[in-house]
Queue: 3 jobs
Job 1
Amino acid sequence: MSDIKVSIFSQILGLLHRESVKKIILQHNSDKFSKGINTWTHLVSMVFMQVANCGSLRDIASGLLSATGNLNHFGIVKPPCKSSLSYINKNRDYEVFRDIYFTMVDKLGPHRPDLRAFARKIKKKIYILDSTTITLCLSLFDWAHYKTNKGAVKLHTVLDYDSGLPTYAYLTDGKKADVRVAKTMTFAKNSVLVMDRAYVDFKWLFNLDSSGVTFVTRLKSNAHIEVVETFLTNDKHEHILSDEDIRLCGFYSSADYPEKLRLVTVYDEKNKQNIVLLTNNISWTADHISQLYRARWAIESFFKQLKQLFSVKTFVGLSENAVQIQIWCSLIAILLLMYIKNKAKYPWHMSNLVAFLRLNLFVKIDLWYWADYPVIRPGKPPNKNGQLSFNF
């Protein structure tokens, strides 16, 4: 390990494919008005903010300045000052960071065998659709309209069930309805889309069905339906209360979705409530439908990790562009750490990995040795039966 001359953070940056990043930078021409800070230095600074948990531009500049001897390993000449960071966060287009994230997802997107085992039963690509709201101070972020006295942005996300990472993300103000954003998305034929009832728009659901997409969602309580056929439930699955084929009865809803749908009622033991699931798949077992909807928890876990472990609640810039850059760099950071977590031999939890990494960010040790063996085990204690010998 003594031969390692670069820090752990330098090796994490090395996971980014520099040639791919350079191509994206050239495509966007994002270094044209760089003010001495090129896009790579900007990217390193904002990823450092996320990994090191910096709370301000001063923290970013000071943190990078403290690593003076390591900056050449980061691929930067000198650390940016806080005024330069403020300027480029406002003026450099966030889209270059968005494209860097999606390019890196294709190259580094980790696979989770525990999730894929269930996906193999379905034999289809599974996506989970949801959004999360990030509250902002309306007096400072006056562009982020949400409520009368409150501002917010909303991150609309499509999570790949295999990798546990977003394959689509779109940031809007807090007032944007979830289903309006969903209508702009397209999904591959034979894929499965799992979502909450905020996305129940029967015309859009019928378009998904016509495109060969299977969906699983929750039925709204005010929907008018008629039962076409009732099926016996399997005694092995006591949480399945009913399994029915239905048709919509409402004037507009029946016109929007004229075909049969399937209704599976499931008992949620944790919350002590019945959940009514709606799907266009007629052939799968009722338990498969319930397991698919249960998989929706993966996106809730992702949002929880993003908000608790990375800087997406406190922003270092007030403009919409600066907020976009910070959120996209947080996604790049979680992608890099998820890659390390899934490749390491040590059974990391994401919270532990982030905490340990922040303590060892500038330590010069092999990244994968550290990820596999983060704790030095003490040697065996001396024999308790042994006695000390004294020579007189």
Job 2
Amino acid sequence: MADVISRPLAEIADALRERRLSARELVEAAIARHQRFGERLHAYSLWAPDRARESAAAADMAFAAGAIAGPLQGVPISIKDLFAAEGFPCFAGSSRRLPADPWEKDGPVVAGLRRQLGVIMGKTHMVEFAFGGTGLNSHWGAPRNPWDASAHRSPGGSSSGAGVSLLEGSALLALGSDTAGSVRIPASMTGNVGLKVTLGRWSTDGVVPLSRSFDTPGLLARSVADAAYGFAALDPAVGDAGRFLAKTGAATLDGVRIAVDDPLLWQDCDPGIAEAAKGAVDTLAREGAVLRTMALPEAAGAYAVFREGGVSAVELRSFLDQELPEWLAQLDPIIAPALRNAETLSAREYLARLGRLNALARSAAPRFDGIDVIASPTLCITPPLLSQIGDAQSYLDANRRIVRNTVAVNYLGLCGITLPVGLDRAGMPVGLQLIAPAWAEERLLAIALAAERVLGRAAERLGTPPALAS
């Protein structure tokens, strides 16, 4: 298969099952892409080509014996370095290796892809302990966003290497985590698709915690079609993945009710962002979607709690105090001030914030009674130059803007997806965020897939990232 890496994941999986393509050939193509771009892009904290070759050989042996272990058999996948995985050290973006017990034992999500003989290519870079959306990491450095070939711009965070691994072609799916947007942010900034599932839908066992109240594993992919494939493969509740994909793929936009114009989510965007997102929504309306003007005031309420300090800092500080106290003195200086300040937050205020968020979530849920999804720009900000956010205050200011449109999905107990719809005036990707009620991932993916068929995939709509063009 010519240029096999660029093919849709479902086509690649069919070729593997039918033995028109071997897992070893696929993995070697992924390794070659990393050899070409990896040193420049810096996606991985641990690159493991020899282990990947061994996993590919096992997948090929199973195919040769007529054994199909699952939809991800032989598929190259990257995993964020806060997922525990047997045989892989775990740093969670910190300067020290975390204890092997429990952080080098497969959790449920990683075990699920291993049971299917998926191929782990390596562990991707992240913000230390997932605390931030910029991608900065003073210990390891930040991956480069391939959409700017001349300057080092944010790749998004905290799953900073995940989207970059997809663009360079060394992985066809990427595991990330999302607490305030850490899957959707890097997906949007790199022109990929990012799926944030409902809290509790996927287990966080074996995932180094940032906020036990809001952490969710998530998935980054090159297209909505690939994301739907990955979701069906990994989600325990889907059952028959083939039936799910057939049903999802048959959905249309006819009569889909899309709410727009929330005053927080659509205002004060950097040049070209709201315009690209609005143009995409208008295209969906011309293809049968019904636009509804509706505000989600709870989004502003949730963002206000985040600006006050949210709950992540105190929950991460609690985890470190109990499990990794030696790490406190060596924290990235960019994030250390917020974690030091968490010492002063009273239990009373912490519980009050959780109470406010629970009330906002209850208030937000009925707003979906008359709509299917809420649409907005995924981010209101062009990926910033990392040289401009290298101190704690500028980092904090940028991070607040980066999560403005994403954090409400987490705090209000919803699910969401971002898909690329254009470029802003700086030539950086713009994501369209679709937000759905809790436990509505199947409907959300069906709508997003119908939207992708109308709008086109990233390669068709955005072109080739400049750093990958040479």
Job 3
Amino acid sequence: MPELLGWILGGCLLISTLCGLGVLIKRIVKQELRSFSNPDDYISNGLTTIFQAITALFIAFPHLPAIEIVYFIISVLFLVWFPLGKTRHILYFFFARLHLGYFYGRRGTWPEH
């Protein structure tokens, strides 16, 4: 991978990591979010955020063996948790949007522009 592309992807992943961290902090601090949050919310958010952060580091510094080991361990944890937790909605989201677009769009129920 070209070095410039690695830095761009790493930067984008760091931005998304900060956003995920912000959501996690918001979920912990705000009482109204805390009241309906369950452990799965925290685990899914935490694993996803850690996965993005370590992927950014792995892309930026691929030659460091310690980052590679941590990257693979976090990847395994994330991929094992993926079908078990709320993280699976990442996959369902695209199929649901596709279905909604074709089903309701064909019936003419969406507003025409």
